[in-house]
């Protein structure tokens, strides 16, 4: 009887097609969010109440110059911010609730204008 094997193959095909479809949806969503970020730019930071809460994970003094009092330090900082223009309805995009994006493609808050 081939029915269980055929059913298994059909289920596997449906799973693969579903995975491919979600992956494609993810790629399209990412593209749309990148376009939205480009179109909006830094405008979202002008919204009343905009804030960037951060957390300092590591602070290491690298060098102290006793003559000038200059201190060089290394820090590791993480922060969270909300861009209200980068939202979507998960029901419309395969129940995707989170997505990874290239940070270079986003307009993000800078700390003292410096990024490396």
Can you tag this structure with a few keywords?
single chain; 116 residues; alpha+beta; two-stranded antiparallel sheet; 19% strand; Neur_chan_lig-bd_sf
Structural summary, described in words:
It is a single chain. With 116 residues, the chain is of the alpha+beta class. It is built from 1 helix and 2 strands; from the N terminus they run αββ. It has a two-stranded antiparallel sheet. A hairpin with a 4-residue loop joins strand 1 (54-65) and strand 2 (70-79). The chain is elongated, with a radius of gyration of 23 Å.
Structural class designation:
alpha+beta
Number of continuous helical runs: 1
Q: Which descriptor suits the 3D outline? A: elongated
Helix content: 25-40%
**Unreliable sequence segments:** none
- Sheet with the most strands? 2 strands, antiparallel
How many DSSP-defined strands? 2
* Count of spatially separate domains: 1
Q: Report the end-to-end length measured between terminal Cα atoms.
A: 63 Å
Q: What value does the average pLDDT take?
A: 79
The order of strands across the largest sheet is: 1-2
User: What percent strand?
Assistant: 15-25%
Order of helices and strands: HEE
CA-based gyration radius: 23 Å
